[in-house]
Amino acid sequence: LRRAATLRPRHLPTLNNLAFACLQAGHAREAESAARAALAADPAHGRARANLAHALLRQAAYTRAQIELSRAAQAARDPALWLELANVRLNLGRAAEALTAFDQAIALAPPDLAQIESSRLLAMHYDDGLGAAEIFAAHRAWAARHGGVEARRPQRRPGSDRALRIGYVSPRLHRSSPAALLAPVLESHDRQAFEIVCYACSHHEDDMTRRMRRAATSWREAADLDDAQLAELMREDGIDIAVDLAGHTPGHRLGAFALRPAPVAMSWLDYFDTTGLSQIDALVTDRWHSPPGDAQPFTEALVRLPGLRFCWEPPADAPEVSAPPSSRGRPFTFGSFNRLAKLSPRALALWSEALRAVPGSRLLLKSPSLDNPEEHGPLRERFQRHGIDPDRIEIRGQSEHRRMLQEYGDIDVALDSFPYSGCIVTLEALWMGRPVLALRGSSFVARQSAAILSCAGQEGLVASDDADFVAKAAGLARDGGALARISGELRGRVAACGITDARAFTRGLEDAYRELW
Fold this sequence. Notes:
The protein is an alpha/beta fold. Helices cover 46% and strands 11% of the residues. The protein is built from 21 helices and 13 strands. The chain has helices at 2-7, 12-25, 28-41, 46-58, 62-76, 79-91, 95-107, 113-124, 132-146, 177-188, 207-215, 227-236, 254-257, 345-357, 376-384, 401-406, 424-431, 448-455, 466-478, 480-496, 502-516, and strands at 164-170, 194-200, 218-221, 241-244, 264-267, 282-286, 301-305, 333-336, 362-366, 393-396, 413-415, 436-439, 462-463. The strands form 2 sheets. Strands 3-2-1-4-5-6-7 form a 7-stranded parallel β-sheet, with helices on one face. Strand 12, helix 18 (448-455) and strand 13 (462-463) form a beta-alpha-beta unit. Helix 2 (12-25) packs antiparallel against helix 3 and helix 7 (95-107) runs antiparallel to helix 8. The longest helix is centred in the C-terminal third of the chain and has 17 residues, at 480-496. The protein is globular.
């Protein structure tokens, strides 16, 4: 193709095929060059525009990529391009614009409409302009369109004292955040009282997959099964309680749950809202994520565990906790290692207020979306519009996990995101001895960090409102002695509060299974 392009430098099929081949081979810059040559020959060519957008994405040039994707999507009326545009906008922290792109993809009625609409439901939680009632109504509408099938529950198998068969269904039974939370539970289940069947709904396999397969009673490869086949397999396996581990996250199998594959169905772990399905009986939570009397609506009954709604296995290779940088003569530094998608306009504005309240302080932002330096300028400009000198904002891209944990040594205090609060990133910050300053949110997803902090006995880091958030940020910056003491104690407090006790957590989860059964 390179030789052909040399011979015919304006031949569109050659240039487009070269761009595509370069993308497949990992040569993003050459793909960009070929796509630009194709556009020079025909500026209206949709495939060339899409190739250019994909080449920019491979270089993490999200701002330019979203411009090209927008042009390509409008020209081609391709739902896949609109979906990509939505995800790029989300990665840039532009949730409201992402929802508009999702709407365009949905309007074209693609074959995977249910999954795309689920992606839109997930994206709604990033938008600080949406309320719980509106989000709940969207979940119920999804269920009415995609889950309103007639199916009878399987008969309960007889025997009151027999082992219950639990079916865990997930597309992420490989190295991922939900798998890291699930693996210790699988290994801690009481094998006399429970039989564990895992349904792996993707072809991805790695060391985490093998670890979980060893821990399960049975393992089913379900990636190639449609929803009806998966539901039938669970019925044949005699599952008593089917547990959805995905909610509306990508690759979910809620369509199978709509077909009532087991006498009892639950949702747990990788989602933070209702599924909207009346066929799912219960949702696993706790008193911090879902306090009694909370107004957030769910179609499922809420099952509150005695501790946090999950347990966590700290990274075995985590570096030792280091002293806060301000105690070593460096400027006081706030930080966030959350995905850039979580940087809502409200969070950005409030973080800016915290910076103003602590003169001379800095903010370190680290995210995979920031690998390309050309993305740093637009992000600094967003803070500049709030009166923050761009030089006070330090930006870093992704790094190897242990190195990332080590970088917590470069910040004094982590700032939580909202309305989509942190979870694993909050636990890792605490484990590395860094206080996480959070808001007490009004929804499940907005309370994740507050729940973790409360469970760990750190309620003093949970702000009641915006003014309290800024006051707490300034207070931590003023009292270096208290900050150093908190930093030195956090790892021990997290270890002692039960979050890391997989055996105790699993007994509580099993009690919930028995009670629901």
